[in-house]
Each structure stands twice: as structure tokens, then as C-alpha cells.
Design brief:
elongated; Alpha-Beta Plaits; 8-stranded mixed β-barrel; plasmid; 6-stranded antiparallel beta sheet; TIM Barrel; GAF; cyclic-guanylate-specific phosphodiesterase activity; GGDEF_dom; GAF-like_dom_sf; alpha/beta; 22 strands; Beta-Lactamase
């Protein structure tokens, strides 16, 4: 049965107690509020965390002020005492039944043992009879504001000592207060997620850096950082919008519970951001790691239930190994998050960090950043204020040929980007990147502006050809797009019927109400609309019926083999006939052979575009092409 979301309890402490030989010494009594105390200890998220300089400074100070070889900040767990900080003692933890500090949990003040060999409670304790041969002990409880004792700060000597002086007692109490103040501050200054009370991203980064520092130079230590995205960002936003923030919080709480149940004992779970979690695994074999990732994936992919509604989400799990991938905490988190994103995109159960994939993502980010500069530089050059990196963007024009008369009837404006270091960047690479960001608006405006400037220049020279401009789905999704186009036409002195817009089917699959409204406004301005890449979308026939377009452009994948592929011939012939019956012109793009040209002419396709006629040309070259007679079928050769 799927889990039902309920408030998230503290993460459970390990249940399997280690086995040790019984002692003849008396056992420490159990505090009255032991379960509350253990729950508080879990909430503070101190156990099994890396060393932290602030705590280490206090223990060093304790050893120095009280002149002892050993000083500890000890946290008493269910079956052990674990040292958050230690000076002079190699062990990281000892059994609780051997713990001096466990006796101090119920002490109202300090617990001082002058000579453990003379105290019946400790005389047979292995820590007294063996290393570190404790003789003297003094511990001050670490007590929360509601009276729950987490452990102690204690000092230890292997020689018996008299009772502490009043000044030394005061010093130990002050050190205890300092430790608790830091514990509370550590929790209060942003180390816990407010919804699940798990450690957050800042704690994760600090813990990774501490682990890396502690293992510096130790080749045997292998750290694996795992990032778990329990929902794509849009899914989480939709969950919040439809069911409310309370349901989204309950979803995250249930995610945390499910993931925590899949982790190895004493593995900390971190809550990084909405629907994103992480954990650190140390020295795990690949088969053990794989089993853990599979358990997490199975747990998260099982539908969640909220008020009887099953909720299914996408899940991405990614991981990165250190030292296989060098770098600090920020770089490791970025790499693991990149792997989780790859898992989401490819719908794989989990993905290891892939350096090649990461390079592609890094290139995409750099291109976006450089594209911002390119747009600004090109705009500055157009206005005469360029300062150095202008001119990267330019427009090439590819002719459109009337297949009945072989005359040029217009051109398509194609955006080109020449990067100063990387050279030409394909629009198939950078335009989709821009469409994912706010860059699409300034990029489209630059293209339209540049084309309008060229059209006005050509009209003054007597070249009266309409030019097609590609626009994005995000352009049509903006309520003011048509108004901005109208303003640009006025500014450049260009008539609306001198341009038309090519719109992909995917653009029309967004918010139909907004898209239709913008298309209607463009048509009222006098701008014709073509459906680009026709035949590649999901609802081609409905678009032919519903949208105010005047032409359809058959995608080049159906044209390249049109002379030999019967299936392509059937699809293209049917499209031409249907479009003509509905009153649309038909444009075939990707015409590269004489055979394709002849087939399209025979089947009454209206316009053609492709390398057979001309490659995309710079404005001056386009003018030369026209002056040379444009397309001459008698001299055409296959490309």
C-alpha cells in the first residue's frame, strides 16, 4: 500500500546495539525522560557529523585551561557515546555502558571523579583498566533550555587529581555554556530545513568540506554524494498550485521519511530545496551503492496519497564519487545535481556523474552567458555605440522560389551567431537554450529589428521581396507581442505586409488562448503567418482548421527522400492536397535535388526552399544572387 503522508517524526536512531562483555561496575541509571532526550539529540543533528572548528576550539581551550591531556565534547546516544570533538583521544565513540558521561546526564551540576580506580562504579571499566587509563574525570552537562541533557563537555587525566577548585568549576561550566550556545546557534542560523527539520544545503556543504579536510591525503577514503530530486520543478509547482502549500509540505515530509528508511544506518539525510534531498555515503562498494539507489528509487516512485488523491511524480537520482571527481563541496554538489537532472531528463532510475554530459551542460551555460553579451554588442553596433564584442549576431537570407515560375518570391531570415572564440554556433544549439530563459524576448526583438532595417534598405534599392521571420512559442505566449511588433514596424517605416512570421507547431501547443489572440492581432496588422515544420507535431490537422495561418511549410525530413521514398510521397501529396483544399499555400523546405524539385512541381507544391536554389546568403550576397538571375533550373545540379 502507498504510504499516507503524516507529520515527519525525528529520524530513528540505530536500533541494533553493539554487543560488549558485561561489566562488574554499576551501570548508569537511565534518565527519566530518556526518549525525549534521544529525540532532542536527533533533532540537533550532531551525531555522526564531521569535525567543526568552533567545537574543536572549545575542547582545545578546555584542555589548556584545566591542564589535562584529554578533553571531549561527548554526546550520549542510545547505545554509545559519540565525540563531536576530542583532544588527546583517538577513538570517535565508545559503548554507552562504559561511558563516564552517561552518569553525568542526571547531574544537576558537575560530575567529578578524583580517582576512578577508587570508585566502585568505574574501577572495572575497560577505559580505566585499559586505554586511555582514566583516573581523573570532570564533566559538565550539555543541557537544553527544556532541561534535556545531550551529553557533556569533559576533561580526563590518566593521573588522579584532587577536586576542582571553584575557579576551575566555573571554567568548566562556562565552557559547557559556550558549547550549548554554539549548538543552539548552529541550529538557529539556517542549518535546518523548516519543513522536515533535516539539515539543509548549508549544513551539507559544511559537512562535505569537513570530511574532505579530515580525509586529505588518505587514498582509501571514498565519498559518494547522492542527490535525489523527488519531483521536477514544474511538478512541484503544480502540486503547490492545485493542492496548496500544506500538501506540498506533506509531500516533502513523506519523501523524507521514505528516503531515510532506505539509507544505511547512521547516514544523514539532507533537505536541500523543495523536493530535493541528498546524502553522503562513505566507502560503499558499488553493489551496495546500487542497492541503496534502487531502494530509494522504488520508494519515491510509488504513488503518494494526499486526502485520497494518488500523486505520481518524476524522480531523478544522481551521484558523484570523490576523489574520482576532484573539487570542494560546491563542485561536488553541482556535479551530483547535474547527474540527478540527467536522470530526470533521460528517465533513467539513477545516473552517475558524466563528465562529457557535464561539459555539454557547462557549454550551454557559457553560451547563454555569451549570448547575452552578443545581443548587447550587436544592439550597440546597430546604434553606433559598440565597444568591443559587437557584430557576433547577423542574419542570412535564404530565397523562396515559386515552383511554377522559378522566380524568387521572398526569403527566410535565418539567425546566425559567430562566437569570437568558438566560431559559428548553430541556431539549433543556441535558440532552444534561449527559449528556456528570459533571453528569448531580447533575442527575438533583435532579429525582428535587424530584419526590418534590412527590408527598409532593400525597399529603397527597389528590392521588394517579403521576408519570413521565425518566432518562438514564448513570443506568442506574451500578451504584448503583437503590440511590440506594431511599434517596431512604425519605428523602422516598414509595412506589415512586407514580412510574415513562421511559427512552429510546438509554439501553438502552449496557452492556446493567448497564442490565438496574438495571431489574430498579427493578422489584423496585415502580417501573414506560416506554420513551420508542418507534420512534425501532434495536432497538425487541428492547427490547419483553427489557426489564422495562410501557408504551411512541410518539414525537410519529408522532402529529402521524396523522389524515392513512397511513404514520404504519400504524406507530402496528401498534405499538399489538404492544404490547398483549405486555402493554404504550401512551402517545401530542404529541396536539395533536381528530382525533389521536379516531383514537387508535378504535385503542385507552391514554393520551394533549399540548397538546390541557394544556401542562406548574407545581404550583399543575396543582392548579387538576384542580380545574377536568381534561380535557373537549366543549370541546377544536385547538392
Amino acid at each position: 500500500m502507498p504510504a499516507v503522508m503524516t507529520p515527519f517524526p525525528p529520524l530513528p536512531a540505530p536500533q541494533q546495539a553493539p554487543q560488549f562483555a558485561p561489566l562488574s561496575a554499576s551501570m548508569p541509571s537511565m534518565p527519566l525522560r530518556e526518549e525525549d532526550r534521544l529525540a532532542a539529540l536527533q533533532r540537533y543533528e550532531l551525531l555522526d557529523t564531521p569535525e567543526e572548528p568552533a567545537f574543536d576550539q572549545i575542547t582545545r581551550l578546555a584542555a589548556k585551561l584545566l591542564n589535562v591531556p584529554i578533553a571531549l565534547i561527548s554526546l550520549v546516544d542510545r547505545d554509545r557515546q559519540w565525540f563531536k570533538s576530542r583532544v588527546g583521544l583517538p577513538a570517535r565513540e565508545t559503548p554507552r555502558e562504559q561511558s563516564f558521561c552517561a552518569h553525568a546526564l542526571q547531574s544537576e551540576s558537575l560530575l567529578v571523579i578524583g580517582d576512578a580506580r577508587q570508585d566502585h562504579r568505574f574501577a572495572a571499566n575497560p577505559l580505566v583498566t585499559g586505554d586511555p587509563h582514566i583516573r581523573f574525570y570532570a564533566g559538565a552537562p550539555l543541557r537544553t533550555a527544556d532541561g534535556l541533557t545531550l551529553g557533556t563537555i569533559c576533561v580526563i587525566d590518566d593521573q588522579p587529581r584532587p577536586a576542582l577548585s571553584p575557579e576551575e568549576e566555573e571554567t568548566l561550566r562556562d565552557l559547557s555554556a559556550m558549547v550549548m550556545a554554539h549548538i543552539e546557534a548552529r541550529r538557529a542560523v539556517g542549518y535546518l530545513h523548516p519543513v522536515t527539520s533535516l539539515s539543509n544545503r548549508f549544513r551539507l556543504l559544511a559537512d562535505i568540506d569537513a570530511l574532505l579536510a579530515a580525509s586529505a591525503g588518505e587514498d582509501r577514503t571514498r565519498l559518494t554524494l547522492v542527490v535525489i530530486d523527488t519531483a521536477a520543478s514544474q511538478q512541484y509547482a503544480e502540486l503547490t498550485r492545485v493542492l496548496g502549500q500544506v500538501s506540498a509540505d506533506a509531500f516533502e515530509v513523506d519523501c523524507a521519511r521514505r528516503i531515510a528508511a532506505c539509507l544505511p544506518d547512521r547516514t544523514r539525510l539532507y533537505h536541500l530545496s523543495p523536493a530535493r534531498f541528498a546524502c553522503i555515503l562513505i566507502d560503499r562498494h558499488e553493489d551496495e551503492l546500487t542497492a541503496t539507489l534502487d531502494r530509494i528509487g522504488d520508494a519515491i516512485r510509488s504513488p503518494f496519497h494526499y486526502q485520497g488523491v494518488p500523486i505520481a511524480v518524476s524522480t531523478g537520482i544522481g551521484f558523484v564519487h570523490h576523489p574520482d571527481r576532484p573539487g570542494g563541496s560546491v563542485e561536488l554538489l553541482r556535479a551530483a545535481a547535474s547527474a540527478a537532472h540527467q536522470s530526470l531528463e533521460t528517465q533513467k532510475p539513477w545516473c552517475a556523474y558524466d563528465e562529457e554530459q557535464d561539459r555539454a551542460s557547462h557549454r550551454a551555460f557559457l553560451l547563454l552567458r555569451n549570448l547575452t553579451e552578443a545581443i548587447g554588442g550587436s544592439q550597440a553596433e546597430a546604434t553606433g555605440t559598440a565597444t568591443g564584442r559587437g557584430g557576433q549576431l547577423h542574419i542570412a537570407y535564404q530565397p523562396k522560389i515559386d515552383l511554377r515560375t522559378d522566380t524568387c518570391m521572398g526569403a527566410e531570415a535565418l539567425l546566425r551567431w559567430t562566437h569570437p572564440e568558438l566560431g559559428p554556433i548553430s541556431p539549433a544549439e543556441f535558440v532552444p537554450l534561449a527559449e528556456r530563459t528570459a533571453l528569448v524576448r531580447p533575442l527575438t526583438e533583435w532579429v525582428i529589428g535587424a530584419v526590418l532595417v534590412q527590408i527598409a534598405r532593400w525597399r529603397r534599392r527597389g528590392i521588394a521581396l517579403p521576408v519570413s521571420i521565425n518566432i518562438s512559442m514564448l513570443d506568442l505566449g506574451a500578451n504584448d507581442f503583437a503590440d511590440r511588433v506594431a511599434a517596431m514596424l512604425d519605428r523602422h517605416g516598414v509595412q506589415a505586409d512586407w514580412i510574415d512570421f513562421e511559427v512552429t507547431e510546438s509554439a501553438l501547443m502552449t496557452d492556446r488562448a493567448v497564442v490565438d489572440r496574438q495571431l489574430d492581432q498579427l493578422r489584423r496588422l496585415g502580417i501573414e503567418v506560416e506554420i513551420d515544420d508542418f507534420g512534425t507535431g501532434q495536432s497538425a490537422l487541428s492547427y490547419l482548421k483553427d489557426i489564422p495561418a495562410t501557408a504551411v511549410k512541410i518539414d525537410q525530413r519529408f522532402i529529402r527522400s521524396i523522389a524515392t521514398e513512397r511513404s514520404d510521397q504519400i504524406m507530402v501529396r496528401s498534405t499538399i492536397e489538404l492544404a490547398h483544399d483549405l486555402g493554404y499555400r504550401v512551402v517545401a523546405e530542404g529541396v536539395e535535388t533536381v528530382e525533389a524539385y521536379e516531383w514537387l512541381r508535378l504535385h503542385s507544391c507552391d514554393l520551394g526552399q533549399g540548397y538546390l536554389f541557394s544556401r542562406p546568403l548574407a545581404p550583399a550576397a543575396f543582392e548579387d544572387w538576384l542580380a545574377a538571375g536568381a534561380f535557373r533550373p537549366a543549370t541546377a545540379v544536385a547538392v
